[in-house]
Hints:
mainly alpha, metal ion binding
Amino acid sequence: MATFREDVRCRIAIFTMQPTRIFVFLLTAAAAIGVALAQSRDCGPRVRRPYHSLTTAERTLLKNAFELAMQRGHHHRFTTVHQYSKNEYEAHSCMFTYWHRRFLLGYENMLRSLGDAYACLTIPYWDYAGTSSSFLDKNNTCNSLASCNPVLVEYGASRQVNASRYSVGGSGQPNDAGEPIDADNCIVDPTQPATRSYCESEAAFQAGKCQGCIPRGNWFAAGVSSEMTLASMSNQIFATSLSKFTQNVMLKMHPKVHANLNGAMGSMASPSDPVFFFHHATVDALLAIYMKCQASNASPMSSLVFPANDWGTFNNRVCGPYVFRPTTSAKKFKYPSATAISMVYYNGTTGDASFDVGDTNSPLAPFFQDLPPSYTAYYNYPPSARVVYDFSNTGFQVLNDQCTAWLGGDYGASSSSSSALLDERRHRPQKETKGPPTAVVTQIAFTQKLYKHTRRYVRNETRARDYVEMMLCVHRNECLGGVFDYSDAFKASFRFDYSPYCYDVLHAIASGDKTIPVPKWTQIVLDTYGCHVQSTSSLI
């Protein structure tokens, strides 16, 4: 077994890792009818559940819905909306969570419009706490994002390496050929509904020349990062303002998943891969917990819900509409007069972009007709959406139920509950008593033990939480395969200026700028999780 020194200096590994126009309007009319049918049917609240809790029939229905969305030309139109520069700027700035909440709802409305069988479909989230628990468990054999969670394998994953460059989006007009994507493989499987009907752009769709495969990285080599652990997600969620919550998620969990999956997911064309929507349903789940625990009684202009108050500049972006070069004098969002969302429909054949996705001229209008184009409408879900989260038997359950108090608790069987954010009693699910899987229970108890040990030496609660997260960065680096920087290609494609959180932490420890002033913490980590990969460093 590997041993740690308390004055550990960490090695740092750097990884330079044609329908006519009439046909389009006919599709739009059909979509409007589909939305109306879905709304007329009483499905109850949209209960977002973890993907692994879906039945085989529910999983099949969801995959078929993605395929039908591709075949009807809806899917790739959402991708180009996400790619369009002014949209992308706001989508990855201070209104990140609200922008994607509307986007996710619009896409889900589209899936529900596809026919009566899909009218009550709700996009599930990916239980990252469960994934990280399985990865950490020394008795478990999974070692990647694909092998530690069923969703990626069931959506085609990728195993073989067939490196090439692909293009996604664009209009086919001069200087708008789409986004170039370097991928390990382009996934096509005649038995896989979620990949076999993929189309990369409107121009290709109308010409009937779709590439028919999704550019992806090697997901069986994609690491499970420390940013997916309960300690890290807890620190991300329980922030003192929405700006801090947003920056936490944008710096930690959100980009790590995109980068590690790579391919289309490592670019602004990421919605072209269906797993994007599971990832962002998870981001939205974190927002739901934040709102419940940190901002339930906030006023509309409070920094707990309105980020313009304390955002500053992050990732070279101000808290306001798109500007080419952000300055302190750049226009900012202001409550309540300046809160409009830039979610402009991008015409994939002409390159024109002049009206909101919900405008009557937009082919996507039926899916956004009840989704207001103002950020303030997404502090909570719009009433028409009726979205709730079910965290039963997941790692998110304890965070949602106990909020910040969970770290100081003692997790046991009595902690089990339905753990659902529900508004309507008659739709409340049956309470579960079995609790989360053993690996998740182990991670909860381990994190509580490590935190309590840390508090013996660190009086400040926030610093203690930070030190626990730093400890897991060291363990990930020394015992679970290393911590790597983002490749230059990812940073350029994702418009991201930062390195991973753990990477920066390890550099700071190695340089002596940071220390972990907690004796014997390494033994607690090794007693629970061991050291899967023997480090080659001297750990001096």
